[in-house]
C-alpha cells in the first residue's frame, strides 16, 4: 500500500487549484456537502479500520499509518472532517455529526463491519462511531484522546497551552478570532515527541501544516466540538475498547483517558509512562494488531 504524503509545495498548489490529491476521493452527503476520504484499498486485507485523524490534519493515510495497517493486514479508510481540505465546513457540528460523515463514507464503500481507531482529536470521533453504530463496530481504540468536558476547570489542567480550547468554550466566532494570532507552543511537546517528529512520524508534521493550509475552520470547529456536548455518551459503547495514553502528555493530560476508562464498560488501558502526545504513536502497530484480531 502506497499513499502520497501531503504537505509539499506541489500538493498545496493542487489544493489551491481545487483538484483532488492523489489517493483521495469525495462524496456528496444527503444535505449537499462534500466530504473527502482516503481508502488504502489494501489487497488481501482481511478487515477494515476506520482511522480518525488529529487536529489539524488532512485525513491522508500518511506513511507510518499505512505501514502499521499493512503489517496488521488492515484496509484503512480515513475521512477528512468538515472544514479540512476537501471537506465542506459544517459550523456548530458535534463530534457525533462528524462521525456520522465517516459512517456515510463506509456505506458508500459497502463496508459493514469495521474497527475504529483515533489519535488525539480523532479519539472522540472513534468513540462516537462505536456509540452510533454498535452493531457494525468490532473494536474501538483511542490514543491520547480527549474526554468529554466535565464541570470543573481541571478538565484543562496539565495542558501546556489550553488557550485554544478555553476560547472554544465561548463559541465558534471567538475560536476563529483566536486563530488569527495563535502560535504553537513548543513546550507542548516533550523531547520524545520532537524525536518522533524527526524520525518515523515526520510525515505527521507535514500533514498538520497541510491540514491548516486553507484556514482555521476545521481546527476551530474541532475545538468547539470537543468542549461542547459530544452528541453521545461513551458509557453506551459496547464494543471492546483499548485506551492508550502517555503519562508525560502535555497536550491532552492522561486524566482524560482515565476518565474515559471510568465511563466505558468494556475498556482496557495501556499507559506509557515516558511518552508524550506524539511519541505515544509508537504504539500504533500494537493497536492495529489488536484491532485486527477476531472478536
Report on this model:
The chain has 295 residues and is an alpha/beta fold. The chain contains 11 helices and 8 strands. It has an 8-stranded mixed sheet with strand order 1-2-4-3-5-6-7-8, sandwiched between helices. Strand 3 (47-52), helix 2 (63-72) and strand 4 (74-79) form a beta-alpha-beta unit. The model is unreliable at 1-17 (pLDDT under 50).
How are the SSEs placed, and which strands pair?
Elements: H1 9-16, E1 24-28, E2 34-39, E3 47-52, H2 63-72, E4 74-79, H3 95-109, E5 114-119, H4 122-132, E6 137-143, H5 163-168, H6 172-179, H7 191-197, H8 202-211, H9 217-226, E7 241-246, H10 255-263, E8 267-272, H11 284-292
Helix pairs in contact: 2-11, 3-4, 6-9
Order of helices and strands: HEEEHEHEHEHHHHHEHEH
Report the major sheet: 8 strands, mixed
Kindly report the spatial arrangement of strands forming the biggest sheet. Answer: 1-2-4-3-5-6-7-8
Strand content: 15-25%
**Kindly, what is the distance between the CA atoms of the first and last residues, rounded to a whole number of angstroms?**
25 Å
In round numbers, the mean pLDDT is 92
Morphology call: globular
User: How would you describe the oligomerization state of the chains in this entry?
Assistant: single chain
Structure class: alpha/beta
Helical content (DSSP H or I, runs of 4+): 25-40%
Query: What are the segments in which pLDDT stays under 50 over at least 5 consecutive residues?
Result: 1-17
Compute the number of strand runs.
Answer: 8
